């Protein structure tokens, strides 16, 4: 037991708490907007959605009090135990949970429904913080890296088995933490490229510009841009970049001019520029004896082969109904009762908000129940429709400030445990923001995960509250000793 | 990106912060585009709203095994209303059109708004105002509908039954409840789904797929045509038709024989496991559970003390009585307890205990006469020799569990897995049951009545008939099933695989011979047919609540069997009195299609017999 010299409430980071209160309050008003009807039960009736969210919020403050009153060492000491309990709960959920609209992720206890997946986030963050702060741990040892990945992928797999793809993918956010702690950035870059390339080549697989397949063109252009970028950050050679840019621009201009007279498949032009750039880099690496350039070339080769193997596997090896299922899952196929229609409705709701919005409770698109899941995953529609561009941007800026604040707090930590945990918290919030707003505005595929503090639901609110306040508790103890 | 020393890890925070800022900026740009630059979304939302209209598919039809139509659809019309769109109108005119009073009208509106009764209520979403309008009322209302803004008509399909028979197995459809809606995205409030019988077990095949039509509406609620010329519309897909294995003539004949009696008849084709008829008496006309009178009639049937809604063929569990003896014989033979030539004595009862009692016949006797005369003692001796002797099993518990395992592989003790909802498992005790009951101290004498199908043993008439099919096949059965064919589909593979009991074929030959002897010169002479070699076993199932149940299990012909049958008449006394003649008539109907003139008097006698338990009448 450490002797506490200063009151916890004097050392805690009040700015973050203020941001939390603002977001929870704004979230509650959005839920009122999303579930409002002229003849509804009233906002404070606990059987309506605003009313029950109010109950969850009230109970969150009880949780916060408990978290703050516990000793900060408690979280360090019990992290593995908490993790083990939650993983067992996740496994039990796979078998015990009833089928609720295709998902097996809810534990039903009488009138109460709990989603253990929401609580797995803080438990996993605690356990990887504990592991990575243990003596002699290093991400460069493959055994240690495997252990961290095991801690991340175990809950991910359990949640996948509960048929909750969105909640499972959230655990990939911990890769940011690993990156901060020394994992090579190429893993993140490779993963990001693979996902982006896959989605783009699927999304535009049937679209052509003239005789140029659009999906391939976009992917190859990104590849060429990255080749130039990588070459630059490796050697900091301005001349090299200028040469490569000039080469690309020249090739595109010539090709564009020619395409006015004869049809040209731009894919071959881009592949040509990539090949030419590669040859130039090979020449340089031999001449200057800089083997790093070889990595860039490897990246180019892998990107191109990835693109064409995805196309090949998808078109030749999968049956049409399997292709369809993947496309619908990614939200790429416009299926009127499914994903495509929903995103369209969501865009209409946001788009109709305009600059100032229609005003609180005056939204019509969300009221008419055109937007699916309007008070859970698609809650941002209500913000967009009722509060307009100004309100929606404010919410985004609030989130950005909040996440950056968390990152800065994490950097200030004196213990490795607290820093890793802090990065875990920031990464989870960032991932949720990225996927949720991306989905609602039609940028990323439809993957249903909640918007922290805004989406309706006790489990998710409590999950995020615990996640955040354990970090604030750890941070408070930094100053008190 | 770099991992060299000049570039400390701490600086990686700027890359992560950069990614956060970049994401926020991209989203703000996207919002700017959606909300300020692009006016398309705004126009749609301001002047138009979507009306998603569900197009209901027609439900699959149901045919009998020879292709006769049993169940089809009739149109019905629900009056829907959207509260928010109602504008002042002539209430009396509407009431008049719909044949209701103003008081009823006000009450209905209040009920719709009452969230305790109607939890999913929303003033923006169509609510059912009145369901199942007749075609005439629909016609009148349709013409006046323009006067009542906010009211709509939704087409539905109801079921119509061609025959007044087979109510239990066909089942019926009714409105979905709250749980159905929560568990299956397909349903919305006021949808119909199969509630019982084939309608329920094949719901996913019969219901088809809903279509959707997306219409544009202006601010006044008038439809302005299709959204993007119907590019996003989906046509409904009709449900698939299914063909049952049931022969409706046989079913109807069985129901006629069972009138004014309580009980069941089940017939199975052993070579496929297809159920030919499944009569549960008392029954009801399936047409009474259609339409607006459904609720009232259902309540009446529920209250009836004879429980007509209860499908006795698979939900009723009875002591199988002597129909259990063939199974006992098989187990004893397989375990080497007896051979076909083992003789046991009988002194008008089981000599060891003096009970259960038995009737007069030669003594000692071997297996085949024991089956044909239905000797109780023989099978009691068998159980004693099997489980009390320590030569075979180390403990009496092990002996009984071996016994149970054989019965389970014959289809007793667990649900057979018929494709109808609500099947019961029956009951076969294991050693733990008796350890608990008798504190671990028991022997064959304690539990002797299970050897003759009494005591703790329970079986459904479907299981009893299935046993007949298994003996007919000399050692295996197919899981009994009621659906023979699904349009453009296949029936579940579990219904096409043989389930072997694990007992040798030669033992089945002995048992079949015994059952044949019971018809030629034993207890079920009354089931004999002139040109068909019927095999059978009577049973008298002791009933603690009243008179014994009369039971029969059999199959025919002896060689190359085509049908297995079980008949059970509750509280009718000896098996030979009612169950045997009913089985005879059913078999003759099955083989010849009609009843021979010399058997007409039996038919008349059965039809005119009333056997109702005293405590009901």
What does this protein structure show overall?
The complex is a heterodimer of chains A (481) and B (617). Chain A has 481 residues and is mainly alpha-helical. Among the domains of chain A are: 193-317, no CATH class; 337-374 and 388-419 and 438-455, no CATH class. Chain A contains 18 helices and four strands. Chain A has helices at 8-11, 14-35, 49-69, 72-96, 116-132, 142-161, 165-169, 174-180, 185-203, 214-235, 238-259, 266-288, 292-317, 320-329, 339-351, 379-412, 416-440, 458-480, and strands at 107-109, 112-114, 208-209, 212-213. Chain A has a two-stranded antiparallel sheet with strand order 1-2. By secondary structure, chain B is α+β, with helices and mostly antiparallel strands. Chain B folds into three domains: 9-38; 52-244, Penicillin-binding protein 2a (Domain 2); 248-283 and 311-608, DD-peptidase/beta-lactamase superfamily (Beta-lactamase, 3-Layer(aba) Sandwich). Chain B is built from 21 helices and 18 strands. Chain B has helices at residues 12-37, 40-47, 91-98, 102-113, 135-144, 167-170, 178-183, 197-201, 203-206, 248-257, 294-303, 312-315, 325-334, 367-373, 376-387, 396-409, 431-438, 461-472, 505-521, 579-592, 600-608; strands at residues 49-55, 62-63, 69-81, 127-133, 151-161, 173-175, 192-194, 211-217, 223-226, 242-244, 263-269, 274-281, 476-478, 483-486, 498-500, 535-541, 549-556, 563-569. In chain B, strands 2, 3, 4, 5, 10 and 14 form a six-stranded mixed beta sheet that branches. In chain B, strands 12-11-18-17-16 form a five-stranded antiparallel beta sheet, sandwiched between helices. In chain B, a hairpin with a 7-residue loop joins strand 16 and strand 17 (549-556). Mean pLDDT of chain B is 87; it is low at 1-6. The chains are: A mainly alpha (481), B alpha+beta (617). At the A-B interface, helix 8, helix 9, helix 10, helix 15 and helix 16 of A face helix 1, helix 2 and strand 1 of B.
């Amino acid at each position: 037991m450490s002797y506490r010299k200063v009151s916890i409430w004097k050392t805690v980071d009040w700015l973050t708490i203020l941001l939390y209160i603002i977001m929870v309050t704004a979230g509650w008003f959005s839920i009122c907007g999303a579930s409002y009807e002229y003849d509804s039960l009233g906002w404070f009736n606990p059987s309506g959605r605003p009313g029950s969210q109010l109950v969850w919020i009230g109970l969150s403050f009880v949780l916060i009090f408990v978290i703050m009153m516990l000793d900060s060492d408690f979280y360090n000491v019990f992290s593995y135990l908490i993790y083990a309990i939650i993983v067992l709960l996740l496994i039990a959920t796979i078998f015990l949970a009833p089928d609720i609209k295709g998902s097996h992720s809810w534990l039903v206890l009488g009138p109460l429904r709990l989603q253990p997946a929401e609580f797995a986030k803080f438990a996993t963050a605690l356990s990887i913080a504990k592991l990575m702060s243990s003596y002699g741990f290093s991400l460069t040892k493959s055994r240690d890296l495997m252990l961290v990945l095991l801690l991340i992928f175990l809950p991910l797999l359990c949640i996948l088995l509960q048929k909750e793809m969105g909640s499972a993918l959230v655990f990939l956010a911990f890769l940011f933490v690993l990156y901060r702690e020394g994992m090579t950035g190429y893993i993140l870059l490779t993963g990001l490229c693979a996902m982006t390339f896959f989605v783009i080549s699927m999304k535009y697989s049937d679209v052509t510009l003239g005789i140029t397949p659009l999906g391939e063109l976009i992917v190859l252009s990104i590849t060429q841009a990255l080749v130039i970028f990588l070459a630059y950050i490796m050697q900091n050679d301005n001349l090299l970049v200028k040469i490569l840019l000039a080469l690309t621009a020249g090739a595109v201009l010539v090709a564009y001019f020619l395409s006015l007279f004869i049809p040209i498949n731009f894919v071959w032009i881009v592949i040509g520029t990539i090949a030419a750039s590669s040859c130039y880099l090979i020449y340089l690496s031999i001449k200057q004896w800089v083997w790093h350039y070889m990595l860039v070339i490897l990246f180019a080769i892998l990107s191109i082969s990835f693109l064409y193997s995805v196309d090949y596997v998808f078109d030749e090896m999968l049956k049409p109904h399997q292709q369809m299922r993947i496309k619908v899952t990614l939200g790429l196929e416009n299926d009127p009762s499914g994903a495509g229609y929903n995103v369209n409705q969501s865009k209409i709701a946001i788009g109709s908000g305009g600059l100032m919005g229609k005003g609180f409770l005056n939204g019509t698109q969300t009221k008419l129940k055109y937007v699916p899941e309007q008070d859970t995953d698609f809650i941002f529609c209500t913000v967009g429709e009722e509060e307009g561009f100004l309100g929606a941007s404010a919410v985004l800026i609030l989130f950005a400030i909040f996440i950056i604040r968390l990152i800065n707090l994490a950097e200030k930590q004196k213990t490795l445990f607290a820093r890793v945990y802090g990065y875990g918290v920031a990464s989870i919030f960032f991932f949720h923001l990225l996927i949720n707003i991306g989905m609602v505005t039609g940028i990323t595929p439809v993957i249903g995960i909640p918007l922290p503090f805004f989406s309706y639901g006790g489990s998710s609110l409590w999950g995020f509250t615990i996640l955040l306040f354990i970090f604030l508790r750890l941070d408070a103890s930094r100053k008190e000793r | 990106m770099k991992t060299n020393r000049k570039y400390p890890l701490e600086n990686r925070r700027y890359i992560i912060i950069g990614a956060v800022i970049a994401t926020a900026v991209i989203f703000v740009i996207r919002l700017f585009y959606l909300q300020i630059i692009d006016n398309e979304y705004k126009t749609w939302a301001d002047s138009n709203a979507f009306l998603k209209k569900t197009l209901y598919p027609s439900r699959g039809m149901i045919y009998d095994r020879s292709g006769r139509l049993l169940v089809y659809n009739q149109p019905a019309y629900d009056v829907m209303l959207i509260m928010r769109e109602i504008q002042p109108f002539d209430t009396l005119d509407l009431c008049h059109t719909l044949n209701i009073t103003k008081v009823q009208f006000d009450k209905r509106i209040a009920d719709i708004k009452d969230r305790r009764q109607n939890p999913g209520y929303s003033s923006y979403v169509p609510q059912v105002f009145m369901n199942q309008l007749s075609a005439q009322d629909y016609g009148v209302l349709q013409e006046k509908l323009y006067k009542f803004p906010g009211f709509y008509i939704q087409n539905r399909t109801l079921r119509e039954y061609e025959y007044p028979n087979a109510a239990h197995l066909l089942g019926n459809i009714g409105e979905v409840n709250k749980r159905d809606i929560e568990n299956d995205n397909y349903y919305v409030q006021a949808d119909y789904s199969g509630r019982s019988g084939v309608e329920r077990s094949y719901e996913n095949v019969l219901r088809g797929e809903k279509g959707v039509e997306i219409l544009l509406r202006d601010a006044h609620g008038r439809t302005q045509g299709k959204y993007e010329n119907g590019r996003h519309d989906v046509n409904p897909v009709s449900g698939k038709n299914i063909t049952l294995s049931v022969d409706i003539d046989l079913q109807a004949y069985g129901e006629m024989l069972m009138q004014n009696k309580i009980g069941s008849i089940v017939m199975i084709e052993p070579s496929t496991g297809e159920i030919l008829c499944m009569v549960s008496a008392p029954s009801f006309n399936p047409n009474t559970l259609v339409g607006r009178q459904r609720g009232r009639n259902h309540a009446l049937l529920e209250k009836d003390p004879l429980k007509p809604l209860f499908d006795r063929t698979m939900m009723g569990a009875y002591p199988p009585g002597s129909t259990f003896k063939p199974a006992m014989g098989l187990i004893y033979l397989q375990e080497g307890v007896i051979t076909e030539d083992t003789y046991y004595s009988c002194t008008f009862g089981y000599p060891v205990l003096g009970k259960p009692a038995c009737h007069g016949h030669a003594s000692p006797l071997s297996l085949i006469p024991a089956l044909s005369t239905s000797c109780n003692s023989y099978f009691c001796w068998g159980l004693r020799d099997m489980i009390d002797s320590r030569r075979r099993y180390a403990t009496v518990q092990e002996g009984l569990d071996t016994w149970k395992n054989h019965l389970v592989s014959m289809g007793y003790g667990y649900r057979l897995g018929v494709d109808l909802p609500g099947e019961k498992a029956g009951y076969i005790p294991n050693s733990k049951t008796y350890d608990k009951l008798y504190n671990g101290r028991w022997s064959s004498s304690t539990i002797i009545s299970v050897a003759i199908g009494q005591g703790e043993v329970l079986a459904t008439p479907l299981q009893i008939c299935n046993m007949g099919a298994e003996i007919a096949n000399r050692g295996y059965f197919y899981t009994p099933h009621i659906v023979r064919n699904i349009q453009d589909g296949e029936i579940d593979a579990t219904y096409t695989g043989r389930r072997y009991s694990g007992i040798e074929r030669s033992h089945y030959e002995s048992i079949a011979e015994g059952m044949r002897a019971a018809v030629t010169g034993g207890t079920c002479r009354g089931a004999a047919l002139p040109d068909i070699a019927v095999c059978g076993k009577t049973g008298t199932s002791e009933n603690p609540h009243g008179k014994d149940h009369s039971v029969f299990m059999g199959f025919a012909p002896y060689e190359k069997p085509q049908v297995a049958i079980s008949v059970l008449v509750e509280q009718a006394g000896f098996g030979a009195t009612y169950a045997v003649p009913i089985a005879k008539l059913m078999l003759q109907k099955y083989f010849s299609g009609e009843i021979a003139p010399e058997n007409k008097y039996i038919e008349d006698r059965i039809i005119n017999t009333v056997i109702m338990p005293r405590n009901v009448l």
